[in-house]
Design brief:
The protein has 178 residues and is an alpha+beta fold. It has helices at 2-13, 66-73, 129-136, and strands at 78-81, 88-91, 96-100, 105-112, 117-120, 123-126, 141-143, 146-151, 154-160, 167-174. The chain is globular.
Length: 178
Amino acid sequence: MMKLLLVTMFSVISPFSVQPAATPAAHDLQWTVMEEQEPAMTLATDRSETFEQFTTLNGVSLEDGKQELFAKLGQPVAIIEDPYMGCPEYHFRHVNVGICEDTDVIQFIHVDGSHDDLNLNGESVPLHIEAIHQVLGEPYHIAEDGEVFLRGHYAIKVYMKPGSDQIESIDLFDDMVS
């Protein structure tokens, strides 16, 4: 208690104690005019948040079964056995779909690079890598043969001609299915 009293008394009578200075009058202050800053502009073409998930590619969902696929697209133009998956690949006019007969599960949805655009989640996207970057953002992974974009457990791989920006094809698949 005695120390507190001494410290308090010393600070009051000390020449080092801080005394508030007189506040200058407003007309004595120097004023600086600051220019208002414009907020940074966000490009309206960046729609990467529009595609928070992949639901359909060219009208086909990975959750469709064979019956839904045929109801949407009609009969396939061709059916080819996929040597890697061991399941048939159904070729339609604008999309190919790999679907295993025993499980009725779509393994992948494939769009050939010869088309001018693709339809992702009901929105048309030009089939150019710059346009795909605008709508999907930066790729999750860049491989020798293309770029991979992930949304949840679904992935899109954009296959590129080696050493160029030319798109050969695009696949949508469930990255959890082996």
